[in-house]
Amino acid sequence: MIRIRVGIGQHEHSSEDGGTTWSHRLREVPPRHTPVVHGDVDLTRLPPSSKETCWDFVTLLPCGFGVAVDHQRMDGTKAHAGVFVTIDGAEHWHKRDTKPRLPILRTSSWKVERFESLAVQTPGVVALAWEDPWIFEGSQSHIICTRDQGESWEYHCLGYANPYLAVDYGGRLLALNDGYYIESRDGGSTWSKSNFNVDWPEGYNKKRVALLRHVSFTEADLGYALIVHWPSGSPRDSLPDVGLLISTDNGMRWNHLQVFEGPNIGDINERHVLDLRVT
To answer: For the chain, how big is the Rg over CA atoms in Å?
Structure first.
């Protein structure tokens, strides 16, 4: 039976039967500097770091391949991101240079200050996303991908896509946006747009933002995600609801499984305020 954990602010909603029945408890929201962790990871075994270093993402696959991403304050104002890989279950970590060549400038990029999303597709295939509107005019989301465990990287500009990444059960890389994906089926070499549909509960404004968050595929065609119900015509300080979505066709159509009250603490866009775990 599928177990679901939905964290929203100081509350956690749990279901042991795939979303049919729910229980509720209070939870402690992790500090913002706490990394987003996927897999059975012992954080004490990460590479030694200085007190200025903050870990952002750590993913460890069952096969032993993993990626850890940090950012380090250099002079009190600027930060440089670091990427480390392991192939032996976090026994040893190796730092990788993540400065790909920019196709237009024909030169190596400058160091990224901080990555905002990590997706590990297979052992060796990794994608990282971040925002930097100064690289190219109008760009908000940038992707670098590797297919050789971080030895070399390719850069892709995804325009106005949000820097949220996911991987479906079959290994498709997804950059999430309002009502569509920018997807790659070849390990990040090429990207194309693919629309999806969200069925809103009766009484909700169907024109509201359809930005998926925390997408998780548990088996072929079966996926779960969170979506924020931004208030329409409500007072500016009113809290949005949060919907738990389910897809049975590999993310093409999403239906609401449950709707929860919005967070009672923190910014809904802040790390850890929303969280989804499906096992």
So the answer is: 19
